[in-house]
Design goal:
Protein name (chain B): MHD domain-containing protein
Oligomer: heterodimer
Largest sheet of chain B: 6 strands, antiparallel
Membrane topology (chain B): Peripheral membrane protein
Low-confidence stretches of chain A: 1-36, 261-285, 662-894, 1067-1074
Distance between the termini of chain B: 47 Å
Radius of gyration of chain B: 25 Å
Low-confidence stretches of chain B: 139-159
Family (chain B): Belongs to the adaptor complexes medium subunit family.
Shape of chain B: flat
Distance between the termini of chain A: 77 Å
Subcellular location (chain B): Cytoplasmic vesicle membrane; Golgi apparatus
Order of helices and strands of chain B: EEHEEEHHHEEHHEEHEEEEEEEEEEEEE
CATH topology of the largest domain in chain B: Beta-Lactamase
Number of helices of chain A: 49
Number of domains of chain B: 3
Helix content of chain A: 40-55%
Pfam family, one (chain B): Adap_comp_sub
Strand content of chain A: 5-15%
Mean pLDDT of chain B: 81
Radius of gyration of chain A: 40 Å
Mean pLDDT of chain A: 74
CATH architecture of the largest domain in chain B: 2-Layer Sandwich
CATH class of the largest domain in chain B: Alpha Beta
Structural class of chain A: alpha+beta
Chain lengths: 1133, 359
């Protein structure tokens, strides 16, 4: 044999024609006697320079791996081929490498450089596969390399590579959990990705690495909702499960009012009646009804909550059972009771799938039927059992049928059960008998019928059936024993035949317990049992002792001797439990001189009234686990299970999900063509830039979090998502949602006409279309557009209309419309601005301060305040069409950026903004002055506006603004409050209260507002700077934006980003003639932090071709770092 | 998510293993074998088995257990659905999904599994994408190549399909290529078909639209007390088939344990009775309305045993060509974005699913 294989070897090595014949079984290597020579043939093939030989060898090796055979000794030979040109060979080498790299770490390192090269390949597939393999090699040494690769791939052009990066994140995390923080950064970045390809994978990574960081989801929530339908199936499951958890933390319980009225299972009927009908009208009626019913404050569903429900619903029709289940559990946990019904049909459909699918679905249905029985009642017949169903399915179906049983359907169900009892599957029959017992306990009307049926089963030929019946009857009889003495008699007779210990024990217990109902038979039974005592099973013996004791207490005349006899037998039993019991009982019941006080109570002890057992479903209360989860199925917490949180008492701030609308700003900037605009404010300018970029970079996303609802545009309409096309859809969708919810609040205000139209549209508009369909869709959309346009002309501009026109504009197809839009709302806005400006000035004079001489550089002073103000109102006019006619609130100066504190929608008409006025706060010099503007957009007056319940980080202080007694409808007001932020960007959270409502709001300062200008000379500056070196100095190189390479621009940018004053250059040489301006000037700025008066020194040194170096010296390193970031951003964009 | 996969055949051999993360020893399958022993029937092995360190989630198809090893929380249906997708893919690639087919194509199987999961999370599960990445084995390859060549143009097109009387459809589920919203709004199926065969939609007809079952069964099966003989009489007939022939009729039944043998006489077709498993199977063929097929005769029972208390249940399979018993009709098929004129055709067929008659 060895010769023949040696021959093969030779041939393999030298043959140049055709493929050599090899034994198919790679284990044939085993024919060599020594291990040393094992796999030599394979090694030789791998070393050859023929791809076909290599491929053959690799195929055989992979076959070995597949069979679980050890092929690790081939590692050196295989790893050499990692750079093989042949793609087939390469693929298999990768398979091998991933399998064995962990065992051969050092050798595996040899392959790393190949993958690093692959990461730079122009072909996206090669980049992706390189990253995939690299991240699958579980070798700790390469963690830094993996990290780098992941970071790079996360910003790759190709979404496929980015998807692979998302996949790699959990791999690296499991290899080295220390990398968590860095990985979270990558996750955050990828979460902002707008392609459906990435969405599922990154959420999966999120769930594995940082499921607790729910805050990362806020900004992406609406996008995820809108992308969901186009994500691949597996990603859908992960996203839906995650969003279920998210929603539980962010929204209010939609059933909060009902849960007060709920009375167990009885209330189900009413809700079922309407679950088929999805009519919006009816829904509204119901809502109104609920509102009037509940004396508590009316529940209004958050539009984002509604968005989730609406966008997941179509997925109930997915072919993928896991997706359907995910949506079903989402609805079960999140939807208003009246809407949950839709999931029943879909779940019932899954019952026609594979038996494993049925198994899981039935478990979940069983849990659901306990809480929401009515939902599945119409599908009762779908749970009927086929004789071919596997037993485990049969038992689950029985469970569901039992849960569904009620007075009306019980006769049908019992008839069905009757046929099941005839089944040949005895386990199933036993379960059916148990089920009948449960029906009997739950439904009083059929108790006697069931009992009779079960008694008939006592004469069944199958002993198991009889035994099971006895056990169930025992439980039933405990409910009304007096009525059923004949049944007890009947069962007493069974002791002659029935052998199943449990059944015998049950009968004996019954007779003992109710011996007074069968006074003649009971002693006779004891007599028979005494006879057979020694041959009984232990549980039966124990019950014989019990029976004896009970009879002795009630009928000692007849049974005294028998009891003595039984107790004596038991005294010498082999089982010590029985011996103990006998001794104990003897002491208790037989009166002796020594017997204690207890024996007086023996009768009470033994014959106390025992409560009837409650026959409960094993699925009761299982819904505290998230349905569809592994933990729910096992009814035990599985590793990595994320608890489903309880609904919050009060909804957290919904504005965290707001996303800025960049497109809107862009349009305005292009339209207004005001030259000063470019100078206006660095922040706004930054934004202008942003729109041109297809994707938001990481840092922007971060700054977005603090800037939040920067623009005046309706934040609800501002969600962005996916492709451009789908964004336009969702935008209009959103705004409709907003208008809808508004209608609920101010029903009298809104016209009813408006109501009907938007209701129908979202379905089509929000549909995210693929580009191929674009052509077909456009005409349709246009016609719809024109419809809504005409509508808008007749009425005052409705919200849905305005935002819809935006979506239209964004396609850049209707320039006319654009102009029209611009013309209409801006005019009244202009007037409003003028009026407002006057007001503002007056208020400013009140704040006139003498002890402070601000040292603003002239550049900062806004020359363009009027124009930019009008722009702000312009924006407002576009999105908040109604309120634009009212006097709008604006920032006092364009240089100061306003932030939204309370949105008009969430504030129920009250909108609040704030800005950092950069004036010192009069009462406390350590506080930052925050100017707050209130606008009452509603039709009713708002009274007693004040702050309450201020929640601060330690050390922070707040000086509340004085209460505003009355804010009439349509009016605005301004107030100033002071906040001591303790030189940190922590948020100040508090409640804004009106006479009717409370709103949770928060203020978070940009780092630049935490300081005030400080005047110093260049010399002083340099001296101070010299003392703030080392850790206190942060330097960054940058390339200045083309537009800000002159002095004017740079100074303006810096002073807008941070409240600093410019250090006059060369002021130390006042006397001498001014030197010629240096070629590369250096700009210096100085300030002190508000609380601790720490110096903040900023230096911008320009260099050749727009290069520059930014230096910040500050004692407070955190402030320094953040400031560098902000200024860097201001200067580069 | 999915850590490892083990394929186990009917005799309890692990014949393939694949790991997506660190290797999990195959000894973990011992817990599966224990559960298998406890189960009376192969299909009664619980799909989810907890073990001290892992969870085993399995599906049984073609007498092969596909056992996935899970380490932490994951929706069980997610894994089950994925495993079924794996089986479907194997079937698609090798024509059958048997132990022999998997062993013969072990390299392709391995490559497929590698592509379908990355780190335990599904990556590519669509057959058309997979076929671009991994070629099916040689015999099928040539065939598939020509077919895909033909269909290569299809991804561009977009076809709305109108169905008549959508009210009829009580419940539908779709292939992901269908645009859900269009269906909801206009009851038009608009989709871009993927390559190859695929199931566009499945529907369920509500019980309100009573669909007449096209076959009826007349039976008379009696066991007499004390006698060792039982009478067996079964007749099938068509019902409301609009002149279409009911064909490929197959009746099977599990007879009571007391039946020793059956001596029956079919008017057409052939029947078999396995005295060990007590499985009766009658291959009827077509039902001729003029001459109804019947199966009559006697059963011999265990002597002295009392009569069985249950009557057998009959599983009936059948097909009807050119008719959709649900009344579903495809109204029209439009195609957009393609210049060529396609051949359109529709073929209706009714096939019994799980149809049981209790006696």
């Amino acid at each position: 044999m060895s010769t023949s294989s040696a021959f093969n070897d030779e041939k393999g090595g030298s043959s140049s024609v055709g493929e050599p014949e090899y034994g198919h079984d790679p284990a044939s290597g085993g024919i060599f006697s020594s291990d040393y020579k094992r796999h030599d043939d394979l090694k030789e093939m791998l070393d050859s320079n023929k791809d076909s030989l290599k491929l053959e060898a690799m195929k055989r090796i992979v076959a070995m791996i597949a069979r679980g055979k050890n092929a690790s000794d081939l590692f050196p030979a295989v790893v050499k081929n990692v750079a093989c040109k042949n793609i087939e060979v390469k693929k298999l080498v990768y398979v091998y490498l991933v399998r064995y790299a962990e065992e051969q770490q050092d050798l595996a390192l040899l392959s790393i450089s190949t993958f690093q090269r692959g990461l730079k390949d122009p072909n996206q597939l090669i980049r992706a596969s390189a990253l995939r393999v690299l991240s699958s090699i579980r070798v700790t040494i390469i963690v830094p390399i993996m990290m780098l690769a992941i970071k790079e791939a996360a910003s790759d052009m190709s979404p496929y590579v980015r998807k692979t990066a998302a996949h790699a994140i959990p791999k690296l995390y499991s290899l080295d959990p220390e990398q968590k923080d860095q990985l979270i950064e990558v996750i955050e970045k990828l979460l902002a990705d707008k392609t459906t390809l990435v969405a599922g994978s990154v959420v999966m990574a999120f769930e594995e690495v940082c499921p607790e960081r729910i805050d990362l989801i806020h900004k992406n929530y609406r996008k995820l909702c809108n992308l969901l339908i186009d994500v691949e199936e597996w990603g859908q499951v992960v996203i839906i499960n995650m969003l279920t958890r998210y929603a539980r933390t962010q929204f209010l319980n939609p059933n909060i009012n009902e849960s007060l009225l709920e009375e167990g299972g009885g209330g189900d009927k009413k809700f079922y009646a309407s679950d088929e009908d999805e009519d919006e009208d009816e829904e509204k009626d119901k809502k109104a009804e609920a509102v009037t019913m509940a004396k508590r404050k009316p529940y209004v569903m958050d539009p984002d909550h509604r968005l989730l429900l609406r966008n997941t619903k179509p997925l109930l029709q997915s072919r993928n059972a896991a997706v359907v289940m995910a949506v079903a559990q989402l609805y079960f946990h999140l939807a208003p009771k009246a809407e949950v019904g839709v999931i029943a049909k879909a779940l019932v459909r899954l019952l026609r799938s594979h038996s494993e699918v049925q198994y899981v679905v039935l478990q979940n249905v069983a849990t659901m039927t306990i809480k929401r029985r009515g939902m599945f009642e119409p599908y009762l017949k779908s749970f009927y059992i086929r004789s071919t169903d596997p037993t485990q399915i049969k038992i689950l179906k029985l469970e569901v049928l039992t849960n569904l049983a009620n007075e009306t359907n019980i006769s049908t169900i019992l008839r069905e059960f009757q046929t099941y009892i005839k089944s040949m599957d005895k386990d199933f029959v036993a379960a059916t008998i148990q089920a009948i017992g449960r029906c009997a306990t739950n439904i009083g009307e059929v108790r006697d019928t069931c009992l009779n049926g079960l008694v008939q089963l006592l004469s069944n030929r199958d002993e198991l059936v009889v035994a099971e019946s006895v056990v169930v009857i025992k439980k039933l009889l405990q409910m009304q024993p007096e009525k059923h003495s004949d049944i007890i008699k009947h069962m007493a007779k069974l002791t002659d035949n029935i052998q199943v210990p449990m059944a015998r024990a049950s009968i004996l217990w019954l007779i003992g317990e109710y011996c007074e109902h069968v006074p003649k038979i009971a002693p006779d039974v004891l007599r028979k049992m005494a006879k057979s005592f020694t041959n009984e099973e232990d549980i039966v013996k124990l019950q014989i002792i019990n029976l004896a004791a009970k009879l002795y207490l009630t009928n000692s005349k007849q049974t005294k001797l028998l009891t003595q006899y039984v107790l004596n037998l038991a005294k010498y039993d082999q089982n010590y439990d029985i011996r103990d019991r006998a001794r104990f009982i003897r002491q208790l019941i037989v009166p002796t001189e020594k017997s204690g006080a207890l024996s007086k109570y023996a009768k009470k002890l033994f014959l106390a009234l025992k409560p009837a057992p409650v026959l409960e479903s094993p699925f009761k209360d299982r819904d505290h686990f998230q349905l569809g989860s592994l933990s729910h199925l096992l009814n035990a917490k599985a590793g990595g299970y994320q608890e489903l949180p309880d609904w919050p008492e009060a909804a957290p701030d919904p504005s965290v999900r707001n996303v800025e609308v960049f497109a809107l700003l862009e349009r305005v900037t292009t339209l207004t063509s005001v030259p000063e605009w470019t100078k206006c404010s660095s922040r706004e300018k930054r934004k202008e830039k942003k729109v041109e970029k297809p994707f938001y970079s990481d840092s922007e996303g971060e700054s977005g979090a603090t800037e939040s609802a920067d623009s005046e545009s309706d934040s609800a309409s501002g969600s962005e998502s996916g492709s451009e096309d789908s964004r336009s859809g969702s935008e209009s969708d959103e705004s409709k949602e907003a208008s809808e919810s508004e209608e609920e609040e101010e029903e009298d205000l809104k016209t009813k006409k408006n109501k009907e139209k938007p209701l129908k549209k979202p379905v089509q508009e929000s549909e995210s279309e693929q580009s191929s369909e674009e052509e077909v869709r456009k005409p349709e959309r246009k016609s719809k557009q024109s419809k809504s346009d005409s509508e808008s002309e007749s009425e005052s501009e409705s919200e849905s209309e305005s935002s819809e026109s935006e979506s239209e504009d964004s396609e850049d197809s209707e320039p006319e419309l654009k102009k029209k839009k611009k013309g209409a709302p801006s005019k009244p806005a202009f007037k409003a601005t003028k009026k407002d400006n006057k007001k503002e000035k007056k208020e400013m004079s009140l704040l006139d301060l003498d002890d402070f001489e601000p040292a603003p550089s002239p550049q900062v002073t806004p020359v363009n305040s009027f124009l930019s103000n009008s722009l702000v109102t312009d924006l407002e006019g576009l999105s908040l069409s109604d309120s634009a006619l009212m006097p709008a609130t604006i920032a006092p100066s364009s240089a100061l950026k306003s932030y939204e504190l309370l949105h008009r929608i969430t504030g129920e008409g009250l909108s609040v903004e704030y800005c950092f006025s950069r004036q010192p706060f009069i009462t406390d010099a350590n506080m930052v002055a925050v100017q707050v503007h209130f606008t009452n957009n509603s039709t009713s007056d708002t009274k007693s506006l004040h702050m309450e319940d201020v929640k601060l980080q330690s050390g922070m202080r707040v000086k509340e603004f004085p209460e505003i007694e009355l804010l009439p409808a349509g009016e605005t007001a301004t107030a100033v409050m002071g906040i001591d932020f303790c030189d940190s960007t922590q948020t100040a959270n508090f409640q804004l209260c009106t006479h009717t409502r409370k709103f949770f709001v928060s203020i978070q300062p940009p780092v630049g507002e935490l300081m005030r200008p400080f005047f110093m000379t260049e010399n002083e500056f340099k001296k101070e700077q010299g003392q703030l070196m080392g850790m206190n100095e942060i330097t960054e190189k940058l390339i200045l934006d083309v537009k800000c390479r002159n002095e004017h621009a740079i100074v303006q940018k810096v002073t807008t980003a941070a409240n600093l004053s410019r250090v006059p250059c060369g002021s130390d040489k006042e006397c001498s003639t001014p030197p010629p301006p240096p070629k590369y000037p250096v700009y210096r700025f100085a300030g002190r932090t508000v609380t601790s008066s720490s110096l903040v020194l900023v230096t911008v040194a320009t260099k050749d071709q727009g290069a520059a170096q930014l230096t910040v010296n500050c004692e407070k390193m955190v402030i320094g770092t953040m400031l560098v970031k902000d200024i860097l951003l201001a200067l580069t964009q | 998510m999915i850590h490892s996969l083990f394929l186990i055949n009917a005799s309890g051999d692990i014949f393939l293993e694949k790991h997506w993360k660190s290797v999990v020893s195959r000894s973990v399958c011992d817990y599966f074998f224990e559960a298998q022993e406890r189960a009376s029937e192969p299909e009664n092995v619980p799909p989810v088995i907890p073990t001290p360190h892992h969870y085993l989630i399995s599906v049984l198809r073609h007498r092969i257990y596909f056992v996935a090893v899970i380490q932490s929380e994951v929706p069980p249906l997610f894994v089950i659905e994925f495993l079924h997708r794996v089986v479907d893919t194997f079937q698609d690639y090798f024509g059958v999904c048997t132990e022999a087919a998997i062993k013969d194509n072990v390299v392709v199987v391995y490559e497929l599994l590698e592509e379908m999961l990355d780190n335990g999370f599904p990556l590519a599960t669509e057959s058309n994408i997979l076929k671009e990445l991994i070629k099916p084995p040689t015999i099928l390859r040539t065939m598939v190549n020509t077919i895909t060549g033909l269909l290569m143009l299809l991804p561009l097109r977009h076809s709305p399909l109108r169905t008549r009387n959508p009210r009829l459809l009580d419940d539908v589920s779709f292939h992901p290529c269908v645009r859900f919203k269009r269906w909801e709004a206009e009851r038009i199926l608009s989709f871009i078909p993927p390559d190859g065969n695929f199931r566009l939609l499945s529907y369920h007809v509500s019980s309100q639209n009573l669909v007449a079952i096209p076959v009826y069964v007349k039976h008379n099966i009696t066991f007499r007390e004390g006698s060792s003989q039982g009478r067996f009489d079964l007749t099938l007939g068509p019902k409301q088939t609009m002149g279409k022939v009911v064909e490929s009729v197959l009746v099977s039944s599990q007879l009571p344990r007391g039946v020793l043998n059956a001596n029956l006489n079919p008017s057409q077709g052939t029947y078999t009775f396995d005295p060990v498993t007590k499985l009766l199977s009658w291959d009827v063929g077509k039902i001729n309305p003029q001459k109804l097929p019947s199966l009559k005769g006697t059963m011999s029972l265990q002597a002295g045993a009392s009569k069985p208390d249950e009557n057998p249940t009959f599983n009936i399979q059948f097909k009807i060509q050119q008719m959709a018993i649900s009344g579903l009709k495809v109204n029209r098929l439009d195609m957009y974005g393609e210049k060529y004129k396609p051949f359109k055709g529709i073929k209706y067929m009714t096939k019994a699913g799980k149809f049981q008659v209790r006696t």
